[in-house]
Amino acid sequence: MMKRRAFILACGSTAFAAGGGGRLKIGQIGTEHAHASGKMAAMRSLTDLWEVVGVAGAKGYEGVPSLTDEKLLGMPDLNAVAVETRIEDSCATALRCIEAGKHVHLDKPGALKHEEFKTMRLEAEKRGLTVQMGYMLRYNPAFVLLFQAVREGWLGEITEIDAAMGKLGDAKQRGILGALPGGGLFELGCHVIDAVMTILGKPQAVTAFSTPTRDDGVKDNQMAVLQYGKATAVVRVNHVDPFGGPRRRFNVTGTEGTFEIVPMESGRVNLSLTKARGSYKKGMQSFQLEVPKDRYAGEFTDLAAVVRGEKKLAWDAAHDISVHETVMRAAGVWQ
Prior knowledge:
Blueprint: H1 2-12, E1 24-29, H2 36-45, E2 50-56, H3 69-73, E3 80-83, H4 87-99, E4 103-106, H5 114-127, E5 131-133, H6 141-151, E6 158-164, H7 171-178, H8 183-187, H9 189-200, E7 205-210, E8 221-227, E9 232-238, H10 244-247, E10 249-254, E11 257-261, E12 268-273, E13 283-288, H11 297-307, H12 317-330
Helix pairs in contact: 1-6, 4-5, 5-12, 9-12
């Protein structure tokens, strides 16, 4: 476990490296996911890496050929597919792409049922195909630096992680959450749990809490405690927080320091160290890292390098399967 965790942390710190070579071909199935248009824009912006050959979905994108699933997957020179369907359809769609011999970018959280997700993920592994989960925090510069800090021991032994990822959900959002048994923590908290487990691995135990603010059956205010041998991680997801965006945070504390990112995707870091590390001094310091305007570009830059065989994806099937299980436990829907 420790060797695999070190590998994930090491690869995560160099995720943006992509070499030369001709453009790869990619398509998209589904336009219903909340990230669908953003993922399409990211792929189309990386013109030196990807040629977007088509989209199959309920709605199209100007300048992108609209195709059926079968037509898209039938292209022999298609390298990868971004799956951006509804969560109910995402895993089955990913499996069809894998069976067609394509690499997959699968948006989060991947599946409603764990056995379906596990089967899909292991089938890709058996065929030597990559499934890249759509967890964009993996590629955020502040998280890349955090993974480096943990890997190189800047913070000592990790004793706690405290994270919150909330928002003020409107009526449409509440309708989406109400259809998910795991609520907001399943739909949004999966991003945070993936980052927690990149650092600490699979927890020994998970305790889920849900305190809904209304009587409409929506799990809009949740918390989970992930327990480890010498650490705990607390994850909160609150969909009735009017300042949910700016309050999003990720704080890691160890025996020799603390690394805090707030707001979560801002690149703003508060770092406290018991001794100087690299270019960072002993004591407390705050700094701003440059964050790319496109939050998804790093994902598809990394995927191109993986598809070309220039590197392995840092997050393997065992990690993704463990994350999916932990997300379901944290959301109170594990069976």
